[in-house]
Design a protein that fits this description.
Structural class: mainly alpha
Number of domains: 1
Helix content: over 70%
Number of strands: 2
Largest sheet: 2 strands, antiparallel
Strand content: under 5%
Number of helices: 7
Distance between the termini: 66 Å
């Protein structure tokens, strides 16, 4: 049965991954710029943009340099790992585990579970778990007005 032989090789369509990544990057940019310029919250705006640029550079790499139409299990792992680290860094700068966007950190692992092999998915889940544990104990404070509100509600 040829189907079972080829289905053992996991792959991910590059165009779908690129489009999903652009959605995430645009959402990150809108959130960071809206919070900084419209709501006037104080946080490390420059470093946040640097972390977002890692995602942009990764997408440009996939568009212009990576010539295959499918991402292999290994290359998908590398890019999803970069996504986890990039998002962890952004969440670190903006409140850590108290940041309401922390739930988005599980998206690369969920995405991998439906498209990649068990071993790859297990490693990505482990990396995500370590990132969440790290963000639980270490992070910058929430942006200024939220930080004051959070402290008055939960510590008074």
């Amino acid at each position: 049965m040829k189907f079972f032989e080829t289905s053992k090789q996991y792959s991910l369509k590059k165009s779908i991954y690129i489009n999903l990544r652009w959605i995430g990057i645009i959402g990150q940019l809108i959130s960071v710029y809206l919070v900084y310029f419209y709501f006037n919250f104080n946080f490390n705006f420059a470093s946040s943009n640097i972390f977002i640029s890692f995602g942009i550079i990764g997408n440009f790499y996939l568009i212009f340099i990576y010539n295959k139409t499918q991402l292999t299990d290994r290359s998908a792992f590398i890019h999803l790992f970069i996504d986890i680290i990039q998002l962890s860094g952004l969440i670190y700068l903006t409140g850590g585990i108290k940041n309401p966007f922390i739930i988005f950190l599980i998206i690369p692992s969920v995405f991998a579970s439906s498209n990649l092999g068990f071993r790859t998915n297990s490693v990505l889940v482990l990396i995500t778990t370590i990132s969440i544990l790290f963000l639980t104990f270490f992070s910058q404070d929430l942006p200024q007005p939220l930080n004051i509100l959070f402290k008055t509600i939960f510590w008074n």
